[in-house]
Specification:
Helix content is about 35%, strand content about 35%. The chain contains four helices and four strands. α3 packs across α4.
């Protein structure tokens, strides 16, 4: 069974979008320190109804250092999928949710998230590491 047959993406949309920079001092401090910011990713899901699942992929870009001046960026991206009737195993479903769906939507999600950060006054920022959802999935379960 190919990846496309396992599930179908019905729709995807921004569920929540947040960019917080409290004041100009923070902005200037962040401009100098944003290279230390780290990308965090989280994936949750919930069954909607028969064979329909909402997969929420959350990206956060934040400063892990303890300091007063920080900006905060977050996007929650919802993807509604219909899972093929053949998929019965919990493990197959987990792989679709944690691996296949995020891999499929990530290029769009990354573009949206970068736009947010660029429009928040940091046009030079790139998200360095490409996220390998297969690897993350395998690390989680092995």
């Amino acid at each position: 069974m190919t990846m496309t047959e396992k599930f179908k993406i019905l729709t995807k949309y921004i569920k929540d979008l947040s960019s917080e920079t409290p004041d100009i001092e923070t902005f200037l401090f962040v401009k100098d320190n944003i290279s230390k910011y780290q990308l965090n990713i989280d994936i949750t899901s919930k069954a909607i109804k028969d064979k329909l699942i909402e997969v929420n992929t959350t990206l956060k870009f934040e400063d892990k250092e303890p300091n007063d001046k920080k900006s905060y960026y977050e996007i929650v991206y919802a993807t509604i999928i219909r899972v093929n009737d053949e998929i019965k195993e919990k493990k197959d479903l987990e792989k679709i949710i944690l691996c296949d769906v995020p891999t499929a939507i990530y290029p769009d999600l990354e573009k949206l998230f970068l736009n947010l950060i660029h429009n928040s006054g940091h046009p030079g920022i790139k998200l360095e590491k490409k996220i390998d959802f297969n690897k993350l999935y395998n690390e989680r379960f092995n």
